[in-house]
Amino acid sequence: MNISVERQKIIQIVGFSNTGKTTLVTNIIRKLNNKKIKVSTIKSAPTHKIEDHGKDSDKNFFSGGVSTAVLFSNGTQITFSELSLEQTIGLINEYTNSDLIIIEGFKKLDFPKIIVWTKNIDLSLFNLDNLIGVYCPSNIYKENEKDVKLFVKKYNFNLFKSDEQIIELLLEEFKL
Prior knowledge:
By secondary structure, the chain is α/β, with parallel strands linked by helices. It has helices spanning 21-34, 56-62, 85-95, 138-155, 163-173, and strands at 10-14, 39-43, 67-72, 75-80, 100-104, 113-116, 131-135, 158-160. InterPro entries: MGD_biosynthesis_adapter (IPR052539), MobB_dom (IPR004435), P-loop_NTPase (IPR027417).
């Protein structure tokens, strides 16, 4: 299998826990899906572990299987014991016809990324490489307008107040 990260269009959504990243990602997926654009996602979950729910596929995996696959009526779920992010991207490239991969988390990667601004923004996020913008929902923007404008101007970022604005950028930049 040829693992090529370059052929896929990838965007990252970054921020700290409970900042709305998943909500933003699911909204973007839903709206792009409505436009017939196929999206795959990869989520960083370093504090979580695969759980054993007592199902046969779990038993297979937790008995030492290096991978297990379950084919449901509405999709397929594959679990691997060890797979790097690069290999995961390679699998998505090889076995899906995704138009876009959205990576949630993995702050230190070198893909274009958008920061999710929250009430208590961690300024260390602005030191990440390849930042293209800040997502600050309208309700939070109103409360933090002065600070947001200052950072957008200082770092020359795009400011996104809605998921629609991010989608417009994705459509234009990635030619989706």
